[in-house]
Automatic annotation (TrEMBL):
Residue span(s) of domain Lactate racemase C-terminal: 273-423
Pfam families recorded: Lar_N, LarA_C
GO molecular function, a single term: lactate racemase activity
Protein name listed in UniProt: Nickel-dependent lactate racemase
Organism: Qingrenia yutianensis
Gene3D superfamilies cross-referenced by the UniProt entry: 3.40.50.11440, 3.90.226.30
Domain LarA-like N-terminal as annotated: residue spans: 8-213
Coiled-coil segments on the chain, per record: none
InterPro entries per UniProt: LarA-like, LarA-like_C, LarA-like_N, LarA_C, Ni_dep_LarA
Length: 425
């Protein structure tokens, strides 16, 4: 027998597998990577050796209006490590520069002052000019052209009017943009809701290249890259984090070339070969990423990439905060026939996307291939309304999975952290 632990909320669930049934344990080796230097040194080294670009201090020479796009409260970017180094570099080249830190909220709510202090520290919040992007603040948005997708590209005018536009961020696998970081600071980071909806359209979500770890021929990435280049995003500082949210790698420079170097590094650590599995067990890595069903869809996509058609996915996500949104819940719960809902989404044009539609579409895609047993704290009736099978333990979920399959000869894939791994066919 082989005992494996799966993160669940702030705890873990453990299951003893028959090794004859265990087809593979799909894990990222990122947790084993030991950097040669500390966090601050890694960031400073990256700034001193930019990829495809002059140094940030050199780019800043003669620039009066400088904007730094920074992530918001929903992302674990270690801004206390990155931002001071970026500010120093800019002021080294342009001591009198008027610098604005623009918080890239995308379509999220605004970041609070307490969240800003937690993110940047009191000194930066007190002494630097900070503006929080609002995707619905029309008088602060400017149309900079038409995306390759055909949608209008509207971004925050503070960024577009900058003499020098730069960004901080972090790189992790992303379940339809391929990877986070780089160009995502602009789209969706500082874009209008209209632009985000066009980019997240059903046609693109359905594209076979809009998947974890894929950038080439990914239409969502193509839109994002176009937006970043058109917005004149000149320089980025991106990091890769370990399970404790500590910097283990940093890269700086050109928004496309530096980002590519970072994704290449991450791919080597996160890649795991798919196995043929009748049952695939996944998680969202526990708290804080498994607090609702909406976020848990990300971890399910790792299982989707390795489970057989007609198989069973067991997803562990405590979901202590519930579904993750009324739009998301009702798109799933109000129609019993998942094929009808999928067809409705696919019938909508690129500029007709409904909020949260992309997340519902991906969950429906998963459900069309496999049964999903959902281990959570959610009420059973809500899980059932979302077309999944409720459970509250791994033992109970495994029993249900065996009943669904109706056979004794089964193979199981275990994915202890579905959001940190890139499952490769």
């Amino acid at each position: 027998m082989k005992e494996i632990s799966f993160p669940y909320g702030k705890t873990k669930m453990t299951y003893a597998f028959d090794e004859n049934e265990l087809a593979g344990v799909l894990v990222s080796s990122i947790h084993d990577y030991v950097p040669e230097k500390g966090e601050v040194e890694l960031v400073k080294d990256a700034l001193a050796n930019p990829v495809g670009s002059k140094k940030l201090c050199e780019l800043a020479v003669g620039k009066k209006n400088v904007v730094i796009i920074a992530s918001d409260h929903t992302r674990p970017v270690p801004s206390k490590v990155i931002m001071p180094a970026m500010l120093d570099e800019i002021r080294k080249g342009s001591p009198d520069a008027d610098i604005t830190i623009l918080i890239a909220t995308g379509c999220h709510r605004g970041t609070t002052k307490d969240e800003l202090i937690s993110k940047f520290g009191e000194e930066i919040v007190k002494n630097e000019k900070i503006y929080i992007h609002d995707c619905l603040e029309t008088d602060k948005l400017v149309n900079i052209g038409t995306l390759p997708s055909g949608g209008a590209c509207e971004i925050n005018s503070i960024a577009y009017n900058a003499d020098l536009l730069v960004a901080e961020g972090f790189i992790e696998p992303h379940f339809f943009a391929g990877f986070s970081g780089g160009r995502k600071s602009v789209l969706p980071g500082i874009a209008s809701r209209t632009t985000v909806m066009a980019n997240h359209c059903s046609e693109f979500i359905a594209d076979k290249n809009a998947r974890t770890g894929i950038l080439e021929n990914n239409p969502i990435h193509k839109d994002m890259l176009w937006a970043a280049k058109t917005a004149r995003l000149a320089f980025i500082v991106n990091v890769v984090l370990d399970a404790d949210k500590k910097v283990i790698y940093a890269v700086a420079g050109d928004s496309e070339q530096a980002h590519k170097k970072g994704t290449d590094f991450l791919s080597k650590l996160c890649g795991a070969k798919a196995v043929d599995a009748d049952i695939a067990i996944s998680t969202n890595g526990g708290y804080p990423l498994d607090q609702n069903v909406y976020q848990a869809v990300k971890g399910m996509t790792a299982a989707e990439a390795t489970v057989k058609d007609g198989g069973v996915i067991i997803m562990l996500a405590s979901s202590s905060d519930g579904t993750g949104g009324d739009n998301f819940y009702h798109q799933l719960a109000d129609e019993e026939d998942i094929k009808k809902t999928t067809a409705l989404f696919l019938s909508r044009g690129r500029n007709e996307t409904a909020p949260d539609q992309w997340q519902s579409q991906i969950l429906l895609r998963i459900l069309s291939r496999a049964s999903v047993i959902y281990i959570s704290e959610m009420p059973d009736n809500m899980v059932k309304k979302m077309h999944m099978i409720p459970s509250h333990s791994l033992d109970g979920a495994m029993k249900k999975a065996r009943e669904i399959l109706g056979k004794t000869d089964i193979k199981i894939a275990a994915i202890p952290d579905g959001v940190s791994v890139i499952v490769e066919k």
